[in-house]
Amino acid sequence: MSREYIEKKSETALSSMFRFSGFVAETEFLASATCVEFQEKYGRAWFDMEVVNALALAEWEQDSSPEEWSKIWVEKYRNEAEETLFEFLEVVKEWPVQ
Q1: Best CA proximity match to 14, nearest among 55, 74, 65
Q2: How far apart are CA 60 and CA 49, in angstroms?
Q3: What is the rounded (10 degree) CA torsion for 10, 12, 15, 19?
Q4: Does residue 98 surpass a pLDDT of 70?
Q5: Domain spans of the chain?
Q6: What is the enclosing helix (H) or strand (E) of 37?
Q7: What is the reported pLDDT for 1?
Q8: 16 pLDDT exceeds 90?
């Protein structure tokens, strides 16, 4: 995987809780073949996204997993997801050339 792949996938990550969740899950281990220093930065930035993801998913499950949950996603979680995604992408810009 590469920086370009992650940046492309991030373009739709905020459109719903489900897309954000998928993006977070898909990107968890993508930096595993890079240097340790970058892996640590990447892991910290990824973890911040995972916290938002986990909180949103927990509330969604607490609400009995309704099909339509976009209003709550936008009102309660999207802004924080956007902030963590932006910070994550700033780290991804430092992707080591191999």
Answers
A1: 74
A2: 17
A3: -70
A4: no
A5: 3-92
A6: helix 36-62
A7: 62
A8: yes
pLDDT value at position 19?
A: 97
Inter-CA distances, 76 with 14, 44, 50, 60, Å = 13, 22, 15, 11
Q: Which residue has the tokens 């339509």?
A: 68
Name every residue whose Cβ is closer than 8 Å to that of residue 8 and which is 6 or more positions away in sequence: none
List all residues 6 or more positions away from 50 whose beta carbon is below 8 Å from its beta carbon.
24, 28
Amino acid at 42: Y
| Secondary structure of residue 23 in the 3-state scheme | helix
Q: What angle do CA 47, 54, 4 make, to 5 degrees?
A: 50
Q: Quick one: the chain helix, strand, coil %, rounded to 5?
A: 70, 0, 30
Q: How confident is the model at residue 97 (pLDDT cuts 50, 70, 90)?
A: confident
Under 8 Å between Cβ of 56 and 81: yes
Tokens matching residue 76 = 């309660």
Give the position of tokens 């902030």.
83
